[in-house]
Amino acid sequence: MAKTIGVLATRQIVVGLVDENALAAPARVFPEAGGNPELLRIMTPDQIAELIADQVLATARDHEIDGVGVGFPGIIRAGVVEESPNLQQVKGYAFATALTTILGRGGLHVPVLILNDADAMAAGVAATRGYLERLIRIWYLGDGIGFGRYPHAEGDWEGGHMVVSLDPKEHFCGCGGAGHVEGIMGQRSMRLRFLDLEPEEVFAAAKEGDARCATFVKRWHRALAAGSATSIHLDGPGKFFITGPSAEFVEINLVDQYLHEMVKMTPLQGSLFETISAGHDLAIIGAAVNARRATT
Fold it and tell me: Which letter does DSSP use for residue 27 in this model?
């Protein structure tokens, strides 16, 4: 039975062979531990595509493959990276076409799907938990804020840039926009706001009674609730998973409280939040699942 290859391309390129919604072998990682974590930032788009193709072809050896899915940061539409703040040199690159061509030269003629990395992670959660028939959303809380949705649907889905504040002073988002979820919750944004504190120090100080930090922590949770409420009003209620480096700071009861203040229509109530630990494997599996579903 044919297998699908999933790829996650963020700071590293991680490639895995996926069968029955699970990794069929250990994933390949480049660069390996101890390598330059900024390597992808200094590579050209063609070099990144060639590197991914090399890893995919090595993974596909001696296997029947039905497709390749690649989770990539940014706005992806019809296989083109329209915007990628993390890897800005790839903006405008026809990634799916380039990768399909390179793989074809290597003898692998299969459909290639490029999708947002957070969408890939959402699909991985759905696949590994038996939720493939449900609407699943995921918040990735790190330097930036990622928002993933499963089932995969066409659109920008830049949920981390939902506007949750009308205060023009809320201008810390990495994209330059005002009032965004990321401008409040992102670790980069927090460092700009609290020039003398790291994110973990902000939350620790709030627990110790620091008024400035305690006020901000409430705003931080309210921003997460507001972004979720916006999604609910557009896409309906459901399960939200929260992961990433800042997930440990989330107080689910507080998010629930704020969400209930924001979502009052009965048919839209009933959403749930759960924090999870998510590694590369989930995104690889999810990229492969979405690629397989796109071909069938």
Answer: P
Beta strand extents in 75-205 (DSSP E only): 75-77, 80-83, 93-94, 112-116, 136-141, 145-150
Residues recorded for the chain? 296
Tokens in use for 224?
A: 């997460």
Please state the rounded mean pLDDT for residues 137-150.
Answer: 94
> What is the amino acid identity at position 241?
F
3-state secondary structure of 194: coil
Contact 258, 91 (CB under 8 A): no
HSE value, Cβ hemisphere, 13 Å, CA-based, for 153: 11
pLDDT digits (tens, 9 = 90+) for 118-127: 999 999 999 9
Q: What is the pTM of this model?
A: 0.90
Q: What is the mean pLDDT of the chain?
A: 93
Output DSSP code: residue 26. P
Contact 191, 201 (CB under 8 A): no
Question: How far apart are alpha carbons 163 and 262 in whole angstroms?
Answer: 14
Farthest CA pair distance, the chain: 62
Give residue-wise pLDDT tens across range 21-77.
Answer: 999 999 999 887 666 767 888 899 999 999 999 999 999 998 999 999 999 988 999
